Amino acid sequence: MSKLLALQEKIGHTFTNINLLEVAFTHSSTGAKHNYERLEFLGDRVLGLAVSETLYEKFPNEPEGHLAKRLSALVQGSFLAIIAREMQLGQYIIFSDAESACGGAENDNILADVFESMIGALYLDSDYETCRALIRKLWADRFDTMKKPPQHPKTKLQEWAQSKNLPLPRYEIAAQSGPDHAPIFDIKLTIEGFDNITVQGPSRQEAEKRVATAFIEKHAKDMT
Fold first, then answer.
1. Domain 2-145 architecture
2. How buried is 135 (Cβ within 10 angstroms: 0-12 exposed, 13-18 middle, 19+ buried)?
3. Could you tell me how many helices (H) and strands (E) the chain has, helices first?
4. Is 104 helix (H, G, I), strand (E, B) or coil?
5. Which residues are known to be catalytic?
6. According to the model, what pLDDT value does residue 127 have?
7. What's the rounded Cα separation, in Å, for the pair 224 and 128?
8. I need a labelling partner for 31 at 20 to 30 A (CA). Which of 71, 110, 122, 137 fits?
């Protein structure tokens, strides 16, 4: 209970239904009847709306495509994991002993999921405006420091390959490990004329993004 009190202080809201908050931080590995997955589903939608609304207000002259790029960068799992770490949410997650021993509290996927489930619980216990206020507070100046809409590294790499008349980059799963609820993917990137690069990530999508970023950083001179 003392942990939940401390968590409510971080969130800035005293829950009427404290059980919502407990469920929001209960991992499926516990085998509990209720875990954070349904709240995560709800929180993801609330988060997307709050960030979309803020971007719509802050960048009134930008087209939909630019707003979509900003949104994608500001709600992606790796970004949410950063916010979750800043709030030290890992210490509040309820795991099985085995999952805890495997370092679940430091897993990016789990941290991102728990952040979304926390938003879902907050929405049910309060309202949308309360969630929006918290999200804007946590995102702080991150809305403004992004001067231009970010280009996804896979898109940048594909456009570069096309400009050089190279075949499109090929992404393959080289290996997969970890439990079903927290898999780890090794993705191999193949581009004609260059050494293959393999990078690991907590999801296929994230691993592909990371390996594309690694190639861009390694071959920055070739891409200018």
1. Orthogonal Bundle (1.10)
2. buried
3. 11, 3
4. helix
5. 44, 116
6. 97
7. 45
8. 122
Label the pairing between strands 197-201 and 170-177. Answer: unpaired
User: Where do the domains of the chain lie?
Assistant: 2-145, 153-218
Among 58, 59, 55, which residue's Cα sits nearest to residue 72? 55
Distance CA 190, CA 209 (A): 14
Using alpha carbons, select from 127, 111, 125 the residue that is nearest to residue 49: 127
Tokens of residue 8, six digits: 């409510």
Residue 139 has a pLDDT of: 94
Can you tell me the distance from the alpha carbon of 93 to that of 118, in angstroms, rounded to the nearest whole number? Answer: 11
CB-based contact 72:80 (threshold 8 Å): no
Please tell me the least confidently modeled range out of 31-35, 51-55, 66-70, 166-170.
Answer: 66-70
**Burial of 167 from C-beta contacts in 10 A (0-12 / 13-18 / 19+):** exposed
The pLDDT, as a whole number, for residue 180 is 76
Q: How far apart are CA 133 and CA 212, in angstroms?
A: 34
Q: What is the pTM of this model?
A: 0.70
The arrangement of strands across the sheet holding 197-201 comes to 170-177, 184-190, 197-201
Q: Which residue has the tokens 């929405």?
A: 123
